[in-house]
Amino acid sequence: MNEVKDSATTITFARPQAFSDMVTHYCPGCTHGIIHRLVAETIDELNIRERTVGVAPVGCSVLIYNYFNVDFLESPHGRAPALATGLKRVSPELIVFTYQGDGDLASIGLSEIVHAANRGEKFTTIFVNNAIYGMTGGQMAPTTMPGQVTSTSPYGRNVEEAGWPMRICELLSTLRTPGYIERVAVHTPQNIVRTKKAIRTAFQNQIDRRCFSLIEVLSTCPTNWGLTPCEATNWVQTNMSPYYPLGVFKKPEPRIEV
Amino acid sequence: MTRILMKGNEAIAEAAIRAGGVHYFAYPITPQSEVGEYLAKRLPEVGGVFVQAESEVAVGNMLFGAASTGKRVFTSSSSPGVSLMQEAISYMAGAQLPVVIINIMRGGPGLGGILPAQSDYFQSTKGGGHGDYRLLVLAPASVQEAVDLTMLGFHLADKYRNPVLVIGDGMIGQMMEPVEFPDKYDEPALPAKDWAITGAKGRKPLITKSLFLDPYALEQNNIVIHAKYEQMKANEIRFELYKVSAKNRMLIVSYGTMARICQTVIDDLEREGVSIGLLRPISLWPFPEMQIRTEAAKPNIERVLTVEMSMGQMVEDVDKAVQGKKPVDFFGRTGGIVPAPEEVRERILKLLDGKMAK
User: Is the CA virtual torsion B4, B7, B8, B9 positive or negative?
Assistant: First the structure.
């Protein structure tokens, strides 16, 4: 951090310690940067930077390890919950989080996330849903909206062939194993504040060795949606949030002795 | 040390614990299920970790996560299961992580069968997953050797920061033999694990990865891991010679259970006045290429015969080792059929009579 400090200056917005001093590679209008920052702020506030380990996905956020000042593993596509399981089981003192996109988590890594959640692995997943494969150039994802044009659904997503978009929070909240599942968004300041609170709850659950937590964050992809950044945030509001309702889907219940 | 009678799969499981391998991730598959069943009971007793994963794909990646902490982690599986782990094996080789993988091989391809085979030689020694990498591959021929090599496997994995594969055919896993476990596993000192993921306390963050988008960085990573493979070739070639002498008319190259059957044949033929020697590779990679070349070049050796429980895989490496200086023949059965000594004997005699050219 290179902050200018003098007696007349009060710093009200500094770079979190959990962030490294790097410029991200994300496109203009992409909300990965916001979500990264909320995670970094949370790590600082909970004072867990020195025992936090992130697991990076394959996708746009594959290089997330460059932006954080914590240990990181770079996972094969979709397998971050399996890596996190291995890490957390052998080193339970670590605070482990996975950061995954919708192609990574909802498509190729669906089995790994469902079973990690069902085993109640005590780590935290930040699931960034922008309804498209970003890094590979805008292909259809399991979360792509009906009729949405992508490079592999040039006539719009046909739900007769491709099925309906997968609602991961709803799916995971059917599991009997206790967990914390919440869907949030970052397209308005108010929603960003809510997202911060959700991420903090998810990390606190882990510190308390309480349960598996997954926070789904509705995100944007102006580049591959073919929209301006402002149009993209509107698109989240009008197209995504009606189908992907925001809110808490599952909370850990008191332990039941079996 | 006490000598006890034990099934191969259970002995391997106990050997891992004795070597400090107390973090186990696996998915059930025949014919090695007893490894996991044994560990499900034993690991809680020693404060270890036992996780039954949802698939071998997940197993490989749980190992990846767990191995990054520097703790000794392992799995056991059988052929189709090991196929599913190839993704993570490639990543772990690229990220330089130590892990031990036990493969109690069954017949393939595909779902194949559940009886003993050695048809994963190519998969084990030539890659299996994508990219330029090698695994240290150890092949026991008895339950005792399975114990010894499993323990050694943990040491070598740490020494080279590379996955180690211990492959036994189904027979090694299923048969019972007397075994001894050392009271204490003595191993040479290992370098400090300054690469282990422990949280960035008092140091810069560590990143465990196999991604290098800069081609020069990726080439450099390959050069670094390739240098380790060269060290393995210099230091870790293991083999056993059986009745090798200047009188030998034939050299047999065979590994695992198959090599023991060949020993029986060699003993029988010796009584009939036919002298044959055996070279049994214990490390399948690095392969005892020079040693085979030296033995095959001896003047009395007429032919070299490779015997495997496969349609002929290691024979390609034997052929390469012999460099055309002697005829290299192959005999094998597969699908779970273990050749009887008589079949091997008959083939040897035909070859030596010159009735059967390659």
Answer: negative
